[in-house]
Amino acid sequence: MTKKDLIEVISKKANLTNKASRDAMQVMLNTIRDSLKRGEKVVITGFGTFSIRKRQSRVGRNPKTGEKMNIAARKAPGFTPGKTLKKAVR
Predict the structure, then answer these.
(1) Among candidates 69, 33, 35, 70, which has minimal Cα distance to 55?
(2) Strands 74-81 and 48-55, how do they pair?
(3) CA 87, CA 26: separation in Å to the nearest integer?
(4) 71/60 Cα distance (integer angstroms)
(5) Cβ neighbourhood burial of 79 (10 Å; 0-12, 13-18, 19+)
(6) Overall CATH class of domain 3-89
(7) What number is the average pLDDT over the span 38-60?
(8) Which one of 28, 61, 64, 78 counts the least CB within 10 Å of its CB?
(9) Contacts of 43 (CB under 8 A, 6+ apart)
């Protein structure tokens, strides 16, 4: 399912126009992104939790040359599904 498909489903089920559904979806995604940028967790009960995961620096290898190189520490977004979502998927 793509973002476009999701917007169409929302517009049908919530009885909204496609534009209103698209705007609502974009606001939700922007809010999640902005919260993660600030280092906050986003918890959607029954669905899951979006959070920032810290990755340690490590030594890797260049696949072309085999040369060792340092990979810098960084932050990465993560998602942990909630109990209800896990049950629904099983």
Answers:
(1) 70
(2) antiparallel
(3) 28
(4) 6
(5) exposed
(6) few secondary structures
(7) 95
(8) 64
(9) 49
Residue type present at position 74: R
Q: Report residue 65: phi and psi, to 5°.
A: -105, -20
Average pLDDT over residues 24-43: 95
Q: What is the mean pLDDT of the chain?
A: 94
How are beta strands 68-71 and 42-44 bridged, if at all? unpaired
Residue boundaries of the structural domains of the chain? 3-89
Please state the pTM of the whole predicted model: 0.79
Residues 6+ apart with CB under 8 A from 74: 54, 55
| Cα–Cα distance list, 9 to 22, 26, 48 (Å) | 11, 15, 20
Neighbour-count burial for 49-75, b at 16+ CB within 10 Å, e otherwise: ebbeeeeeeeeeeeeeeeeeeeeeeee
